[in-house]
TrEMBL record:
The keyword Signal does not apply. The chain crosses the membrane at residues 20-41, 48-67, 79-103. This is Integral membrane protein. It comes from Streptomyces olivaceus. NCBIfam families: memb_SCO4225 (NF046119).
């Protein structure tokens, strides 16, 4: 299998299926709302909206949070967390796509066995 075929297969698992696309839309929507929050709210709790994208990408984001805490203490840069949310979403989307693909493969295999037996 060529490298381009592997990359294409990974991309299909991570983005081009219903489950992964819905998950990425959820995380992207949460990030868009969090990014727009300063335009509408100026209270002291306005930055807490970023908890939602982080929670949607947990447990993969837990590693990013741990890395930020270990490397910078409590002063990790914002780019680490935003990039970490995006990377965590892609990793988990790949995992969801893999599970979806394997479950569909089993279901399709069962259907083929039933039609061959009948």
């Amino acid at each position: 299998m060529k490298t381009s075929d592997r990359i294409r297969a990974l991309t299909r698992l991570a983005v081009a299926n219903r489950v992964s696309a819905a998950y990425l839309a959820l995380v992207g929507g949460a990030m868009a709302i969090a990014a727009a929050q300063p335009l509408f709210a100026t209270g002291p709790d306005a930055s807490l909206i970023w908890v939602w994208p982080a929670l949607f990408t947990f447990p993969a984001f837990g590693f990013v949070a741990w890395l930020g805490e270990a490397a910078w203490g409590g002063d990790a840069p914002t780019w680490l967390y935003i990039g970490g949310i995006a990377l965590s979403a892609l990793v988990q989307s790949l995992a969801l796509g893999s599970v979806w693909h394997s479950l569909r493969g089993r279901r399709g295999g069962r259907r083929e066995r039933l039609s061959a037996a009948g």
